[in-house]
Amino acid sequence: MYASTIRDILTKHARLPHDVNTLTLTDDLYDNGLTSLSTVNIMLAIEDAFDIEFPDTKLNRKTFSSIESLVETVTELLNR
Amino acid sequence: MNTSINAEQEFDMLLAHVQQLGRDLIRPIAIDVDRDARFPKEAFDAFKSCKLLSVYVPKAMGGMGLSITQVCKLCEILGGYCASTAMIFAMHQIQVACIVHHCEGSDFFQNFLRDLVREQYLLASATTELGVGGDLRSSQCAVQVTGDSFMLEKQAPVISYGAQADFILVTCRKNSDAMPSDQLQVLVDRRAAKLDPISTWDTLGFRGTCSSGFHLQSSGHVQQIQPVPFADILARTMHPVSHLVWGSLWLGLAQDAVAIARGTVRAAARKNPATPPISALRLTEVDEQLYNMRANVQMTLNDYQQKLLTNDSEAFEQFSYALGVNNLKLCSSELLVEIVSKTMMIVGIMGYKNDSPISLGRHLRDAYGAALMVNNDRIRNHNSTMQIMVRDGR
């Protein structure tokens, strides 16, 4: 469920050269062209969409490195 | 308990030996190295004979097994004698740390470390690329693997001491279909590589690092490809260790300039004991800045050493951590220029003269390089993006 919202956010903000829907859940987003500037926009959009705040411990490259890790992080923060 | 005292004593002896090398060999040739923009060969011959190129290799593999903190101390001492020599030593240690930290699972690299101890190989690095500029996280060139062997070609605008190194760690894309950020690092044997110069190194400072550009063509065995993504090596090792060893050698450089200034203030005080010299006030100001510079290095170093000891791999990935490491680089490199410039005011015309025994010309020229090597504006730009990615800052 969260994955489709995250895919929508990535489509809008990630500025990847490929269609986000062709990426698997575990594909590395940075290896697929994600930049640090786009990461900022993704973070802000996810915080708004799910009404959450990422703590510093989640503000790392690993969190933003795949759709799967974003889904896991969002799930964890929503269940707090 | 006893072993730790012994290790401490051993390290103190090593420091004393390096100080002696600094006084007797490195400082005397520094003028020559700087004037001719030549590699400090005598210094590195001496380093090799006392196994200083393998200080960071673990004891189990025959190295000295020093900590990053201890390696930084060596960089600081060397920086006080010749910043170019210290920079080459520091850059070599960064490459050694990349292998020690990230290649534990590779028999090839474990054997390479043993060979490095025995042969005292000098390691260089080729990260920047024509067309990409200084962005380490982006490559155009790609490693081409066929069976067990690889081929790699790179247009490198800078390979410090590339012509003198035995091996060069080269960043590249994982394959020719990979995105520019999907990178690996390959250990290239210079004997199996062709290096054609594409640019010269006639700079204001750090002249002895011989950081010319090269068109590099190389080949070798696939085992020479490091077994982890370059992004991990950069986050955990190359980025923090670079700024720590550089910050340490810049500290040594600044300290030497302040020591020269203190010498002249003392001489003035001796000449006129009734009135304290006005330069003493300037000296105390510059000493405050030196204090800040030392504190920056020490704080970041303690933090890094602690993270290594607790194997806190997630912490290295945090944007706030990268931001802090960048802050060290920005602060240190800019304090360095301010400190050395102020010592010039204290020392006066004898510091301004190139042929004076207390010349500060080389110190000042070297100091200006610190903010440019990985340009501070690029780092600030990156930091300004990351500011939004930090919640509490620590």
How many separate domains of chain B? 3
Structural class of chain A: mainly alpha
Q: Give the full name of the CATH homologous superfamily of the largest domain in chain B.
A: Butyryl-CoA Dehydrogenase, subunit A, domain 3
What fold name stands as the CATH topology of the largest domain in chain B? Answer: Butyryl-CoA Dehydrogenase, subunit A, domain 3
How large, in whole angstroms, is the Cα Rg of chain A? 11 Å
Q: What is the CATH superfamily classification of chain A? A: ACP-like
Uncertain stretches of 5 or more adjacent residues of chain B = none
Gyration radius from CA atoms of chain B, angstroms: 21 Å
| Biggest sheet descriptor of chain A | none
Give the number of DSSP strands of chain B: 7
Largest sheet of chain B: 4 strands, antiparallel
Mean pLDDT of chain A: 93
From the coordinates shown, what is the CATH architecture of the largest domain in chain B?
Up-down Bundle
